[in-house]
Amino acid sequence: MSDPALPGSAAEPGSAAEPGSAEPPAAPITAPKGLAGALTRFRIMAFITGVVLAFMTVVGLPFKYVFDGQALWYTIGWQAHGWLYIIYVAVSLDLVFRLRWHLGRAVLILLAGTIPFMSFVAERYVTKRVEPLLD
Question: How far, in Å, are 4, 11, 77 from residue 22 at the CA level?
């Protein structure tokens, strides 16, 4: 039995239970404008930053501290990572602002570019959450 005094009950005219209801259906969630491009830029920079950082960590640090190596490529590699990280931060912030994610998630994504191999994890995490919005 339905109580006519309760909102949404079958006896109330214009209720959701009535086939000719005046309530519009729920609007589908739409992706923010430019989200596909922002995701692509983020994925590219996460990969490039991650590869350079992984190489400099796995190859560069042992070269310098284990084998006491002195080479120009070592200095250039760390400088390249620094500049690439700045670009990674910019594209990450672009994506975070478009999605209106909270500060904690944004900070974790930004820090992923400073920890070896974590930018790959962050890229998968972000892609897994953004791709359904693009479909």
Answer: 18, 15, 63
Judge whether 40 and 49 are in contact, CB under 8 Å.
Answer: no
Q: Which amino acid is at 12?
A: E
Query: How long a stretch of residues is the chain?
Result: 135
Instruction: Name the residue ranges covered by the structural domains of the chain.
Output: 35-134
CA–CA separation, 51 and 80 (whole Å): 11
CA torsion, ordered 109, 111, 113, 116, to nearest 10 deg: -120
pTM of the predicted protein model? 0.74
Q: Tens digit of pLDDT for each residue in 25-54? A: 655 567 678 888 999 999 999 999 999 999
- DSSP state letters, 3-38: -TTSTT-TTSTT-TTSTT-SSPPPPPP-PPTTHHHH
9 Cβ contact list (under 8 Å, min separation 6)? 2, 3, 15, 17
